[in-house]
Structure formats: C-alpha cells, structure tokens
C-alpha cells in the first residue's frame, strides 16, 4: 500500500499487519506515522522469535515510526476481529497503548505474542488468529497422519492375515498329500516286465 493511500485510510487505534515472510508482526497505529508494538529482545529476528515457542522470554513495548517497523516488508490495515468484537474507543486504545511504552512483558509465541498484545488493546481480548490457524493446521495434519497410519496398519494387518491363511491352507494341502502318499505305500505300485 502506498504511503499516501495508507495515510488517508489509517485511523488511530487501527491494527497494522506486517508481512515478515514466515510470520506476521502486529502493531497498533497511534497517529503521527507511529505505531506501538511488542518487540522481543532480539529485535524481531524471525529465527529467534520462532525459537521462543520453546520458552517464555520478555519483550519490550515500543513506540516507533511505522516505516522503521515495516522496513521493506508489505503491510496492511487489518482490524481482524471487528466482525467478532466491538472495538474499544480509538482514544482509549491509543491512550492504553502509549501508557504501555517502555514496559517489559512476558513473551511467548503461542500465548503472549505481538498479535495477542494488539488485539488486547483494540478489543480487550488477547487473541492470535495466526496461532489458531497454525494449531488448526497442525491438528489437521496430525489427524490426517493418524488416519493414514490406521489405514496402513489395517492394510498390513489384513495382508498378513491373508498371507497366514494362504500359508495354513498350503500346509493343510501338503499334509493331506503326505498322508495320501503314505497310505498307498508299495502295495499300489505296479511293476511290468
């Protein structure tokens, strides 16, 4: 989105989604081309942010120029939960966001990330669609994997059961042949001269 188009559309209290490739960073617009956002100690390193899923770290609430936060990434205004929750008043969102600047908060990719931070400011509800979608995708993947393993197991089990039946039948036929050949013995042999 071009800066002039963005300036005409953005309002204080709007949420800004910044596409960082493998994840989205979130900020709340507070006016004057500035945003408030939650930044991990590694200053936004994708790898370190993703590794933070393994533990809980701290993050700083910062107020920065939008262009500094965005860099060369794409960004959009995305008030993603407006259809679910009534947004708080813009002046309340901005006031609360600005009061948080300089604080250090607990950070965890799954439970307390930058999206949780901004949705809590706008709606009073800390939610992360990014996390929900990822968890859902993982759940579906695990479900598909379990179903595939069940089908494979059933196939292998039924295959071995069929093979066992074939082997038993072959063994029964061989025993019958052996009995029949023993029963005949030499008395059934005919010699011709």
TrEMBL record:
GO terms for cellular component: cytoplasm. It comes from the Eukaryota. PROSITE patterns: LRAT. GO terms for biological process: N-acylphosphatidylethanolamine metabolic process. The chain crosses the membrane at residues 135-157. Residues 175-193 have a biased composition (Basic residues). GO terms for molecular function: N-acyltransferase activity; phospholipase A1 activity; phospholipase A2 activity. InterPro entries: H-rev107_PLA/AT, LRAT_dom. Residues 164-193 are annotated as: Disordered. Keywords: Hydrolase, Lipid metabolism, Membrane, Transferase, Transmembrane, Transmembrane helix. Residues 15-130 form the LRAT domain. Belongs to the H-rev107 family. This is LRAT domain-containing protein. The lineage of its organism: Eukaryota, Metazoa, Chordata, Craniata, Vertebrata.
